[in-house]
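Aim 2, interim progress. The first record below pairs a target sequence with its structure tokens.
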Amino acid sequence: RQAKGGPHVLVVDDDADTRLLLRRALESAGFRVAEAPDGPEALTLLESGDPFDLVTLDLQMGQMHGLQVLNVIRSRMATADLAVVVATGSDDPVVEMELFEAGADDFIVKPVDPPRFILRVQAVLRRRDPKVFGRLF
């Protein structure tokens, strides 16, 4: 299910094709990947004790909006410092400001361009912990 080694990423998106695209891009770049189809399952996985280095979070999800998920992640002691990259179908500057105000580390606009997505994820991890990132890549 998960390869050993690289940073552990949780991909949260209600679209199975997007999850597959992000999983393949991340795994080809050396990441270990877990998936969740919605916010509640993502929050359950984050509580499971298997630590994650980063979450990619879809903004527009049916069961629980990405901003709600982000707010819960930031409110919990165990996940408050977790790196979060939000994927959104909007390039609206107001949405961008809301995401950063809510604690997102970065965001990407859909449709996702895999090479740029990987560079953004790596940049967030490098800013978070340059020493660890240097050993991983």
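The second target in this work package is listed in the same format:
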Amino acid sequence: MSKVKKITYIGQYAEFKGLYDFLSLANSFKESNITFEIFGEDIDIEIPQNVSNKKRFSPDNIDNIFKNIQLLVIPSRCKETFGFLSLEALSHEVPIIVSSSMGSKDMLPDICVFDSKHLISTIMNMVSKNEKIKFAINLKSIEDHSEEIINLYERAISKL
């Protein structure tokens, strides 16, 4: 975490996506040397001085965008199934932390998942501990996944 000098948000400029939680995070780090950037919409919004509004980017530029992200925060407040943003970031080897509302939390280490009310304290804790986070994603095999699905159907059928 000591090497992280820029934290990024990508998404709609909306409260339910956690944008204002992200901006509060940036505001709490205004005296530090960490900068923040947001990508998402071609509109101007009120942001703290240490935040750059990069607006919308072209899909042609996505590799370049992700190459320059040091830490991506996905602070969604609403329940989301999975979300391609997490996969896109991980495919570009970008470290991410996500809110517990995200389905993608299931494939991340616990330290990378936060309750939406605790974004600031989670990041503050990560910075103060200066721990190295190792991503080791263990996906289920198709056989294990199939067995779980069959068990779900069998339980549902037995209740009929």
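Helices lie at 19-28, 62-67, 84-91, 119-129, 142-158. This observation will shape the mutagenesis plan for the next reporting period.
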